[in-house]
Design a protein that fits this description.
- The structure holds two protein chains of two kinds.
- By secondary structure, chain A is α/β, with parallel strands linked by helices.
- Chain A has two domains: 132 residues, Aspartate Aminotransferase, domain 1 (Alpha-Beta Complex), CATH 3.90.1150.10; 240 residues, Aspartate Aminotransferase, domain 2 (3-Layer(aba) Sandwich), CATH 3.40.640.10.
- Chain A is 40% helix and 14% strand.
- Chain A is built from twelve helices and 14 strands.
- In chain A, the strands form four sheets. Chain A has a seven-stranded mixed beta sheet with strand order 2-8-7-6-5-3-4, sandwiched between helices. Chain A has a three-stranded antiparallel beta sheet with strand order 9-10-14.
- In chain A, helix 1 runs antiparallel to helix 8, helix 2 runs parallel beside helix 8 and helix 10 packs across helix 12.
- The radius of gyration of chain A is 21 Å and the shape is globular.
- Chain B has three domains: 181 residues, Rossmann fold, CATH 3.40.50; 57 residues, Roll (SH3 type barrels); 88 residues, Beta Barrel (Elongation Factor Tu (Ef-tu), domain 3).
- Chain B contains seven helices and 18 strands.
- In chain B, the strands form three sheets. A six-stranded antiparallel beta barrel of chain B has the order 12-15-14-13-16-17. A five-stranded parallel beta sheet of chain B has the order 3-2-1-4-7, sandwiched between helices. A four-stranded mixed beta sheet of chain B has the order 9-8-11-10, with no helix packed on it.
- The longest helix of chain B is centred in the first third of the chain and has 20 residues.
- Chain B is globular, with a radius of gyration of 22 Å.
- The chains are: A alpha/beta, B alpha+beta.
- Chains A and B meet through helix 10, strand 12 and strand 13 of A and strand 2, helix 2 and strand 3 of B.
């Protein structure tokens, strides 16, 4: 059976244009961008150009982009680096219960360093409330870190409204925009964020690349030590070909944004429509109209995640569930637990389907048909 | 029968050499093989490390070598409810439980089998050393050919419907051959040490483990004639026939546990490996399972094992109704232990088994054994 990929929120296929842009760099440009000779300058040019284009994609200044090894490193640098650099001003950090583990575990590390962390709750719709943020803010709050789009449910968070609330407050505002970047039009000034995380492989770029946007003037301690690269904020010889690929992926995302949005929204409707047609019992988690078009999280009553995912895979459908797993077995999702309460059935019977470059309307419909017959069999 | 390539076999993979080779053999025979790791126990330590993670990692490596898909399934809750609760209850009752028998009955060949079937599997295979044979529509379970490895003792509770869906690809192989095959194919687990002991305790100290769940009540150690020989640390830490850890010095033969008095919290000890107090001539067994699913009506002559890896002994089994039998030993047996399984054989065919409930001598219930 033809395998169908519905897990683009986990990672995406590399766009052929991206590969095409990277190849000559891999083949010809091997210099170290820090070197003061011809070979080095060639590499440096590539990074400079990528930085300029990527900065433009979020309406930032190119000096404000720090390339990292990906989203996790950028989140760590934002959360730990900013809190540590500003601990004299206060030791309170606000984040949410539905963040990616890159943020949550970084926050737990800060707790061990003596910081106090407030984890904002969410209601059953999976949305962080602006009022909760307002009432959690304190004079000694130095950092607020809230994701732009939740990676499990696709729920868009009210970042712009939160940015307004934080306007008069000295706390820095970080957003993990890994699932938003590329699909949403992001303007860091409009959102009033000081730090923003993005990742290359989620938008059809190569893996092991990402960036942290740092507004000019934000104090951040580096988490690793070495050379002068990225103005010491992230030392280490740059991943030149990866950065080139990331740049190309960004260009494509910006060029095709509205077209992709339309297409993925269409895929989502096709998928849900087919499930309804096949009389599948299901509930969409979150508020469908407030999710990004590429992600849909569905609860199938009377089933469980392990049987679902294994059956899906054996029938060629690739999807996923809660991000955490130990020894290969799936733990109930912390995001759905925050939404519905620990132990709720939806935390163990929900699957995330995410659409992207590997999909066509036909293969989405075909996948939905396979999903429907499995769910109908298991829920009997 | 379906073509082998259309016959899906789910292999329960533990990350050990046996289940690795089981998967390999099935793959070589041309089946549609799927590897699944069962996580039954959370032993995550304070550093977030758990042995299950390493074991699953081995499953992943082997399955990738074999180019078969692999998954995991979590039965921690079922294991706790069905196996661990029973395990603790038996210790509380002063008995020595056999969690492996219960795990096979309730988890591996029930919850896990159901899971496998829900994945469209035609069969469930494991790395157990046992064999299944179909004779005129009836399924028989035979000992594994490796006498030293035969695991039918732990599988005595399986039913016809289970056996009709089970494969034991290693049943006809000696362990040495299994290791050799693993080595020949350079499987990631070829040189992995066999796991020992009860799965959820692993390499840890048994006493320490048990004390985390059950309060230990130290008490007196006495001979059956009432002579005090010292203190015990809690009855649950001792099993009938045990010599180690009594701490009774002095001259003469070593001392052995011969029984327990739960009400007065006394551990009975006697001297000498062959002390007559350790011997009995019969037992009452409950929770009977007959693999052919026929009720026992007439007394039956067969052989039996009272613990794993023991030589068979000749017995007569008499039905007592109510899912109970009396087992009479043709030769007196040493250290029969309530809570353990008694398993019956006719030659190489495993007939079924039950749980040892009472121990008998001269027609009388040996109350000191418990």
């Amino acid at each position: 059976m033809e395998p169908i990929y519905l897990d683009h929120a986990a990672t995406t296929p590399v766009h052929p244009e991206v590969t095409k842009a990277m190849l000559p760099v891999l083949q010809e440009v091997f210099g170290n961008p820090s070197s003061v000779h011809h070979f080095g300058r060639k590499a440096r040019q590539i990074i400079d150009e990528a930085r300029r284009i990527i900065a433009g994609s979020i309406h930032a200044n190119e000096k404000e982009i720090v390339f990292t090894s990906g989203g996790t490193e950028a989140d760590n640098l934002a959360v730990v680096g900013t809190a540590m650099a500003n601990r004299d001003r206060g030791m309170h950090v606000i984040t949410t219960q539905i963040e990616h583990h890159a943020t949550l575990h970084a926050a737990e590390y800060l707790e061990k360093q003596g910081f106090e962390i407030t984890y904002l709750p969410v209601g059953s719709e999976g949305k962080v409330s602006v009022e909760e943020l307002e009432s959690a803010l304190r004079d000694d709050t130095v950092l607020v870190s809230i994701m732009a789009v939740n990676n499990e449910t696709g729920m868009v968070q009210p970042i712009k409204e939160m940015g307004k609330v934080l306007k008069g407050h000295p706390a820095y505002f970080h957003t993990d925009a890994v699932q938003a970047y590329g699909l949403m039009d992001i303007n860091v000034d409009d959102w009033n964020v000081d730090l923003l995380t993005a990742s290359s492989h989620k938008i059809n770029g190569p893996k092991a690349g990402g960036f942290l946007y740092m507004r000019e003037g934000v104090q951040v301690s580096a988490l690793q030590y070495g050379g002068q690269q990225e103005r010491k904020r992230r030392p280490g010889t740059e991943n030149v070909s990866g950065i080139k690929g990331f740049q190309r992926a960004v260009e494509l995302a910006v060029e095709n944004r509205s077209e992709r949005q339309q297409k993925y929204a269409d895929f989502k409707q096709t998928f849900l429509q087919k499930l309804r047609q096949e009389n599948v019992q299901f509930v969409v988690n979150g508020i469908e109209t407030e999710t990004v078009p590429a992600i849909v999280n569905i609860s199938f009553p009377g089933t469980n995640v392990e049987a679902l995912l294994t059956n899906f895979d054996l029938s060629g459908v690739a999807a996923s569930s809660g991000s955490a797993c130990t020894a290969g077995s799936i733990e109930p999702s912390h995001v759905l637990s925050a939404m519905f309460g620990k132990g709720d059935d939806r935390t163990i019977n929900s699957i995330r389907f995410s659409f992207g470059l590997a999909n066509t309307k036909d293969n989405v419909e075909e996948a939905a048909g396979r999903v429907a017959s499995i769910v109908n069999r298991l829920a009997e | 029968m379906k073509d082998k390539k259309d016959t899906r076999v789910v292999v329960g993979m533990s990350g050990g050499v046996d289940s690795s080779v089981a998967a390999l053999l099935l793959k070589e025979q041309g089946y549609d093989v799927v590897g699944i790791f069962m996580k039954n126990w959370d032993d995550t330590d304070e550093n977030g490390v758990c042995t299950a993670t390493e074991d699953f990692d081995d499953v992943v490596r082997v399955c990738n070598q074999l180019e078969i898909p692999y998954y995991a399934v979590n039965f921690e809750k079922q294991y706790w409810d069905k196996v661990f609760t029973y395990f603790l209850d038996e210790y509380k009752a002063g008995r020595t439980p056999n969690p492996d028998v219960m795990c096979n009955k309730e988890i591996k060949f029930k919850a896990f089998l159901d899971h496998a079937l829900s994945l469209g599997a035609d069969y469930l295979a494991t790395g157990h050393y046992a064999q299944v044979r179909e004779v005129d529509g009836e399924y028989q379970m035979l000992r594994g050919v490796d006498d030293n490895k035969d695991q039918t003792y732990f599988l005595n509770q399986l039913s016809q419907s289970v056996l009709s869906k089970v494969m034991f690809p290693l049943g006809h192989l000696p362990k040495k051959e299994v290791r050799r095959i693993a080595g020949e194919h350079d499987l990631a687990t070829a040189n992995k040490k066999d796991s020992t002991g009860i799965c959820f305790i692993g390499e840890r100290n048994f006493k320490e483990f048990l004390s985390e769940y059950l309060p230990a009540q130290p008490g007196k150690m006495k001979t059956l004639n009432g002579v005090e020989k010292g203190r015990h640390e809690g009855l649950m830490y001792y099993t009938i026939g045990q010599r180690q850890g009594l701490g009774i010095g002095g001259s003469g033969d070593p001392w052995f546990v011969v029984g327990k008095n739960l009400e007065e919290n006394i551990l009975y000890v006697e001297q000498g490996f062959h002390n007559h107090r350790l011997y009995s001539d019969g037992l009452i067994a409950t929770d009977l399972n007959w693999i052919n699913e026929e009720k026992l009506i007439e007394p039956m002559e067969c052989t039996a094992k009272f613990r794993y890896r023991q030589q068979d002994s000749k017995v007569t089994v008499r039905p007592l109704g109510d899912d109970k039998v009396r087992v009479e030993f043709h030769d007196a047996q040493r250290a029969i232990t309530p809570g353990q399984a008694v398993v019956f054989y006719d030659g190489d065919v495993c007939l079924g088994g039950g749980t040892i409930d009472e121990v008998l001598k001269d027609e009388k219930y040996l109350d000191y054994v418990g």
